[in-house]
Design brief:
By secondary structure, the chain is mainly alpha-helical. The protein contains 13 helices and no strands. The N and C termini lie far apart (53 Å).
Amino acid sequence: MWWGVASALLANVFYSTGFVLEKRALSGLPRLSTAQPARVVRVLIGSPLWLVGSLALAAGFAAQLAVYRTLPIAAAQGIFVSGLVLLLLLSSVVLGEHPSGRERSGVVMITLALLMIVASLQDTDAVGGHASSARVLLICVPALAAGLWLYRSVERRARRRHRLPTAGVEYGVAVGLLYGVSSLAIKGVSGHLTTRGIGGEVFALLKSPYPYILMVTSVTGLILSQAALQRCRASLIVPVCTTVTCLFTAALGTFVFGESLPDDPLRLALRLGGTALAVSVLLLLPRHDEPPTPSKELAHEA
């Protein structure tokens, strides 16, 4: 279990560093449009700094595979969310972003909510490894459809004239749903990793929906997340995306992979209460960036 905890903390470092480097690279790139996916990919791979950031995210993905081999899904999500603290620090130092007091309080409350979920765990909790294809698709297909629909709706509203600039909450929710589905696929792939009977496990993996879900969410998530990250602050969109991903994975992954809820009333209350708190904070985050006041504009020009 301690190897899993160490891997989760390492994944946090890789993911936070990767997102910040990608955001830094995106600020110097032409505006990306989800209507031109091939152009998005060409522009991104032409940026050395963005490639470094993507390699850091890939390293986080590799660490995540190790996490899901050793920790229950809900416990893993509780540790992953602690990376938000590092992300806020890096986005402030490297990107010069300054989250509002309301947003900082929201992140603190979200962290508290997910710590409540972690507190509901015990060492004896089972670590699931396999799930039926029908159950996986029952959860993943509607979630993918909902994420794509929400992203498209935000894009349409953003094109309206005289509309306040979006802060990125809806973008974060949409991409978080995609990455939540991807996280379930990663969990499924990790269950097939073994040093014995490799040939049989590879064949079983190819027969499962996991690699194909992972391919779809990787390509789609790449295009949508980078366009959203270019338009919005990383210090808001990434915490929202991370929260949605963690809650989705913890709640539905527990069901999909048969990792049952606690029988003890206190532990059950902590898990359900933490989930409700995180969702309520997410709903209260501001949907739009405040327009700059004259004093801020003068200070920026100075």
